[in-house]
Amino acid sequence: MQAVSESMPPGTAADACRAFGVPRASWYRHERPAPVACGQKERRASPRRTLTTAERATVLETVNSPRFADQAPGEIVTTLLDEGKYLCSERTMYRILKAHDQVRERRRLLRHPVYECPELLATRPNEVWTWDITKLKGPVKYQYFQLYVMIDIFSRMVVGWMLADCEKDELAGQFIAETCKRQGILPDQLSIHADRGTSMTSLHVAALLANLGVTKSHSRPHVSNDNPYSESHFKTMKYRPNFPPRFGSMADGRGFCRAFFDWYNNDHHHSGIAMLTPADHHRGRGAAVLLARNVVMLGAYGRNPDRFVNGKPAAKATPEAAWINPPKVARVVADPS
Predict the structure, then answer these.
(1) pLDDT at 125 over 80
(2) Residues 6+ apart with CB under 8 A from 147
């Protein structure tokens, strides 16, 4: 093989191997160095410019010192240069920080707490209420009336409301106490959910709820979906055709609210409770109303069944529960084996 390698002119490897009866693969394997074994890395000598272990430790200690803890590597290198010192380049400093998982804020910063997602279940009236405050425009610009509304999430019935000229925790406490008294709420019977407004999270309201034996619950910050019943209700009110752009006075606003909440509770058929009115569902009349509707539908089916393409109409059932953030059901994937 050595003779083949020395006597073979460039570009004639195939001819030479053919002439001497040597496989070309054998010649190429002889000419090229053996590859590194699988799983092993070829060790290379460290460049002369590489920092020593002691120098890298000095750099890391410097950037984490109280003097430089809140400064970027570029600022640190420049400051040291102005003082006649040079530890390493800015890029090398970044490499050292990355190797120690410190390419981030190195100061002790305030960490936002992780808020638990509220999960509330109501299976009967007066078990879970939700409340909120919305603004109603007054007679002049920048004047607003504050509307306090309490809703039972099981029946969607407005169990209490109050219109005031301002938002205060004392007014909120008075509103909650009067509503609980009017509905005959007993200790440890009710949970009240609200967002994180100043009145909702005030110490005055918290102390009042504790005295009444009412469990409090709050939405997560900046998550409007945690209070869906109040948000939906306010949209229903403000999208009514007779909702005025402004209210001329407090008496004008109370007159509108009185008529609206009477309609909402007693005449409005709510899609979330099988098109029952909140008052019927709240007072246990829902099953009888749905049964009467089904009798009418069956009569229409008996007179002309061809008009019911899906067959005989089935009776609707009253909703059995209402959730705020129902728990997510984990998907069960069948084992293919």
Answers:
(1) yes
(2) 133, 134, 135, 136, 161, 162, 163, 253, 257
